[in-house]
Amino acid sequence: MPEGDTVHHAANRMRPVLVGAVPQVDTPHPRFGRERWAERLGNRAVTSVDARGKHLLIRFEGDRVLHSHLRMTGHWGTYRAGQRWGRSARRAWLVLRARDAEVVQFDGPVLELLTAARARADQRMAGLGPDIVAGEAFDEADFLRRLRADDPTRPFGDALLDQRTVAGIGNLWKCEACFEAGIDPWRPTREIGDDEALSAVRAARPRMQQSARDGHQTRHKTIYGRAGRPCPRCGARIRQRGQWDDNRPTFWCAGCQR
Fold first, then answer.
1. Active site residue 2
2. Which of 141, 155, 170, 222 is the most exposed place for a label (fewest CB within 10 A)?
3. Is 205 known to be catalytic?
């Protein structure tokens, strides 16, 4: 699943193409055949492109907002006009053309046109915790309050995935944050002190912000996807097992994560 840094990076690439422009709108996927988006968005300039956690919002003049969530399969791509797309054109759901460039959403299971008021009230976004990528400051007090309101028996690693607690962390960054902070992701949240919890988000935040800027998420992987290999910190073997209700593959080192 694309994580918050990936969505912020997509927004950063789209913004110079779309903001201030009146894009040509094309919805090649048959799902949108009757929704007339090209007509409803015609002659409307884009006023902003924003990411909130894993959600992406393209705002148009006249109270229109395109909302996207990529879940496990979706992808946003930005290309020069005529450049070959990264996925098959048959998988394109939305194409926005402006300034000799094309912004394309592929395979996006959540793609909808909302009013601004509906977007503000939508609990998928209104209920989000503080965004770990966005802004100059991260509201640590709000993060801790939301964490303590969660199930105290929940493994800390899985608690980090709850977007109502902290927005933007996905499975990769959950594993990396716990590793950098030296925290066993299987420990119940009630056993994690405030300083420990903050050390995890403080470890992940600058790395995720860098990934949002340059798009090179893989350079930050220290433990994720490396089951069976020696831990780079203590040499013990890295383990992997599915965690909690969603059974997300979790990578950790039992030798140095406590």
1. yes
2. 141
3. no
Task: Please determine whether the domains at 4-126 and 140-253 fall in the same fold group of CATH.
Answer: no
CATH topology of domain 4-126: N-terminal domain of MutM-like DNA repair proteins (3.20.190)
**Which of 54, 91, 154, 207 is the catalytic position?**
54
Q: Is 221 an active-site residue?
A: no
Q: Give the global pTM.
A: 0.95
Where are the chain's structural domains?
Answer: 4-126, 140-253
Second-level CATH architecture of 140-253: Orthogonal Bundle (1.10)
Active site residue 54: yes
Q: In one letter, which amino acid is 128?
A: L
